[in-house]
Amino acid sequence: MNKRKVMTMTTRRSVIQFCNAYLPSGQWYDKHFDFIKDSSLKQRIINEFKSIRFAYKLYSGLDMSGENYYFEVRSQIISYATIYEGIIDYLIFDVYKDNEEVRGMLRSKKTRIINLPQEEKNRLSSPYRSRDGILSIVQSSYIEKNEKQVTFEDKCRIAEKLGLLKKIQLKDKIIDLPSDIRRIYNYRNKIHIFSSKDQDINVDIKLSRMAYRRLEPFLRCINNKLINDEIR
Predict the structure, then answer these.
(1) C-alpha to C-alpha distance for 59 and 62, rounded to whole angstroms
(2) In terms of Cα–Cα distance, which of 86, 67, 73 is closest to 187?
(3) 110: phi then psi, degrees, rounded to nearest 5
(4) I need a surface site. Which of 54, 112, 127, 182 has the fewest CB within 10 A?
(5) Local structure of 199: helix, strand or coil
(6) pLDDT value for 145
(7) Which residues of 94-114 are buried (b: 16+ CB within 10 A; e: fewer)?
């Protein structure tokens, strides 16, 4: 039986120290994620971010290339998209759940045409009549949607209306934050074994870097909005 090869404890300790050295301090997490009052969700998001950064430094330190580097880049995009979606979901369906825009998003209008018998048509008053006579009556009702039925595109649209997402100034240029986050999420949906063969790895790398660089301004934008709304 083949013996499993493992690195020495000294090497392992050095690698872990190297990767952890690039993680933010505990104060950084307190400052940027403090608006999440669901402690379980907050810890999951923090853990996800820590693991992304740890893996990034591990692969960078090893100077990986080829399929290993591509795997790391794809994993970064998937993980950041998960964080963005988790935070937006929490804000919309928890913090702003009573907002009219959010409540309207969870309802869809259903209409149906009722064709009446001729004798019923004759009894109806003139407001229901057209020049050609009474044809039908339209009956409307509303159907409640499950949160899982709402697309990410609609979530971003509502977040933008609420002011949680918007264009921001980043250094010397204007960044379309809602558009960038949609792009990251949509690209995540395209990443799988059958479509990746057609993808350009240079595009993946740029998007992976953007996913990381947009997180802090994304969190800052949210915190400013919550402060303005006196929610935190």
Answers:
(1) 5
(2) 73
(3) -120, 130
(4) 127
(5) coil
(6) 75
(7) ebbeeeeebeebbeeeeeeee
